[in-house]
Design brief:
Elements (H helix, E strand, L loop, with lengths): L1 H21 L3 E6 L44 E4 L12 E8 L7 E7 L9 E6 L2 E7 L5 E7 L8 E8 L4 E5 L2 E6 L13 E7 L8 H4 E7 L5 H17 L9 E8 L6 E18 L6 E16 L7 E10 L4 E3 L3 E4 L8 E6 L6 H14 L3 E4 L13 H15 L4 E3 L9 H5 L10 E5 L2 E5 L5 H4 L4 H12 L4 E5 L29 H9 L4 E4 L5 E4 L2 E2 L2 E2 L6 E5 L17 E5 L3 E8 L2 E8 L4 E8 L1
Length: 613
């Protein structure tokens, strides 16, 4: 009897163990997002985040030989973040969730391989440029690689790459579509000695780009996903993107804190949480914080104005957000300064066309922070195309790169064609009505901010034209600056006629002809704009000629995160300086003196100008 019981128990244990071994499960689940912060005492990542996987050997490790992929060496490698004993032996699936919004060839892969590059990987899923591939090696020595050319992905830039193997058939999917399959191999996977999972990025063409700019998530399964499984997973990932979430579960800020429109006595703050939350904003001129404002309604995007502040004064602040289930997150203690008195010196930094490269914008943010300007002037194309159905371009790209500095230095933006519907632009900014165009004073300067997406409004008799005429006529400011996105004049190679094909360029957008005459009539000093992704400064211009006494200077600064552009092959009569490359500008004003500098991505001075009145 006892023997029969023991046999029965053994049978139950074996059956249970077998069921456990064959249970379908996710073996590895990894999330990636850049951890961009300023340096030293200003280092702060607001709220919570999900940490990317790290090597289990932090003090000492050997990576082994790099894997050459499409004749490229990796720029970044992550290994030893998964235990080799847990690797699937036969059936499995591997996925990569990719955001590729750059115009130069880049790539990434995830693979199970040894440290000797001569040993073939057991499996590999990756892509480079316009091709994806899935490779398998089995114990019998058989190997197979599936490849497929790819075009635009979901929402143009997102790709869900999945490779599956059920022991006899391998399949390759992109965004739920079966692109290639093969039944030419079968059996167990052949793992090299000292196997490890490696995630590698091939970003040679994109300086400062990180794996986390490209790869947003990855999963390893111990079974072959069916089409319905892949669709369900894709639906989950797409829902996160639609909602603007950066992390799948943790309560977090997915935008801001974002300072905008600072005056001598007030400042506006905007932020967004991944779920509805109320908030408490604490602030003051010293620590501990003694003042506070509360927002009792639950919402995703929240905005507040801190008012009754003192002019030209440094302040501290922090935001506490509380979700409906009581969970809390904290922005950490941050800083800002109010606008200066009329007679005081001040400075501002200029950037335009931040668009699609948070890694470039992060670099510029750090350089701008080192200058400690009073505010930032954004020349439009905050996003590449962040209209209503492309919310991710704000959360995954713009705020990812810029929050580190915009949580401490206020932004004054204009809209570009990238946010032409103004849907998210208005939700993420609190600006004077009608918000699409406005004016403000800082020190002894007056700034006139236009929405150049509305061509008819810029012509004589148009709404913005007549508004600007009135504002300019009323202004007694020492310095007058106009800001909009599109180009009144430009030496661009092909935006205004392809100069390489022998076509004569209009050397700028003709719809600004009326405005240019208005600028000259009322003595505008400088017009700032972007749109063309390069740098150009004109001579002072009046009535179509260089006029160093009464002319208007035009400065095109579109060198943030957009795809870089170039200039026509011959010199333009109005052009004083051109420069192709990522950059930002800085203006210092003290009384009747104006000092202008342009710096490249390495912080090197590339242009300089002084004006005196």
């Amino acid at each position: 009897m006892k023997k029969n019981i023991l046999i029965l128990l053994y049978s139950i244990i074996c059956t249970f163990g077998s069921a456990q071994e064959t249970a379908k499960m996710v073996l590895g689940d990894w999330t990636f997002h850049p951890n961009y912060t300023l340096e030293r005492n200003a280092r702060n990542y607001p709220g919570n985040k999900t940490e990317a996987p790290k090597s289990r050997f932090q003090q000492f490790k050997t990576l082994g030989e790099p894997l050459l992929f499409y004749e490229k060496y990796p720029t970044e490698r992550l290994t030893d973040f998964f235990e080799a004993v847990k690797l699937p032996q036969t059936e499995f699936s591997i996925e990569l969730w990719i955001l590729n919004h750059v115009n130069l060839p880049v790539g990434s892969l995830i693979t199970a391989r040894g440290k000797d590059a001569k040993e073939q990987p057991a499996w590999l899923l990756g892509y480079y440029g316009d091709e994806i591939l899935f490779h398998i090696m089995t114990e019998s020595g058989e190997e197979k690689t599936l490849t497929s050319k790819i075009k635009k992905g979901w929402k143009q830039y997102w790709g869900h790459l999945v490779g599956t193997y059920d022991g006899s058939k391998m399949k390759l999917y992109l965004n739920g579509e079966l692109l290639a399959e093969s039944a030419e191999i079968q059996g167990k996977l052949k793992y090299p000695s000292s196997s490890q999972i490696e995630l590698a990025a091939y970003l040679e063409e994109e300086p400062y780009m990180e794996t986390s700019n490209l790869v947003k998530a990855s999963r390893l399964y111990n079974y072959a996903l069916e089409p319905d499984d892949i669709k369900k997973r894709l639906d989950e990932l797409q829902a996160m993107v639609e909602e603007g979430k950066l992390y799948p579960e943790v309560f977090h800020y997915n935008a801001g804190p974002y300072l905008n429109f600072a005056t001598q006595t007030s400042i506006n703050i905007v932020w967004e949480t991944d779920r509805p939350a109320k908030a408490v904003v604490e602030y003051g001129k010293s620590l501990p914080l003694t003042e506070k404002k509360e927002i009792s309604n639950f919402a995703l995007i929240q905005e507040i104005t801190l008012d009754n502040l003192n002019p030209e004064t440094p302040y501290y602040y922090q935001i506490k957000s509380i979700a409906q289930d009581g969970k809390e997150i904290n922005s950490g203690v941050l800083t800002f300064g109010t606008a200066v008195q009329h007679e005081s010196a001040f400075s501002f930094c200029i950037l335009g066309d931040t668009e699609s490269r948070p890694h470039i914008n992060s670099r510029l943010a750090k350089l701008i922070w080192e200058e400690r300007p009073n505010f930032m002037l954004h020349l439009g194309d905050v996003t590449d195309g962040g209209v209503q159905n492309h919310k991710f371009e704000w959360n995954q790209e713009y705020f990812t790169g810029i929050t580190q500095v915009a949580s401490r230095i206020p932004m004054f933006p204009v809209a570009g064609n990238g946010e032409s519907d103004l849907y998210w632009y208005k939700r993420y900014h609190r600006l004077p009505e009608p918000e699409s165009y406005y004016t403000y004073t800082f020190g002894n300067a007056r700034f006139f901010m236009l929405n150049s997406n509305e061509a008819a409004e810029l012509k004589k008799g148009g709404v913005q034209y007549e508004w600007l005429r009135t504002q300019l006529a009323q202004s007694k400011a020492t310095w007058k600056f106009v800001t909009h996105h599109h180009c009144p004049i430009s030496s661009d190679e092909d935006d205004f006629g392809n100069t390489w094909e022998g076509k004569k360029s209009t050397q700028g957008d003709p719809r600004f002809d009326d405005l240019k005459r208005l600028y000259e009539e009322f003595g505008v000093d400088v017009v700032f704009y972007g749109h063309v992704h390069a740098y150009e400064r004109s001579w002072p211009i009046k009535e179509g000629k260089i006029n160093k006494t009464d002319g208007v200077i035009y400065i095109m600064s579109g060198g943030a995160g957009g795809h870089l552009e170039d200039f026509a092959p011959t010199h333009s009569w109005f052009s004083s300086k051109t420069q192709r490359g990522n950059h930002f500008c800085k203006v210092d004003i003290q009384g009747n003196e104006f000092f202008f500098k342009m710096y490249d991505l390495e912080g090197r001075l590339r242009d300089y100008l002084e004006l005196k009145k």
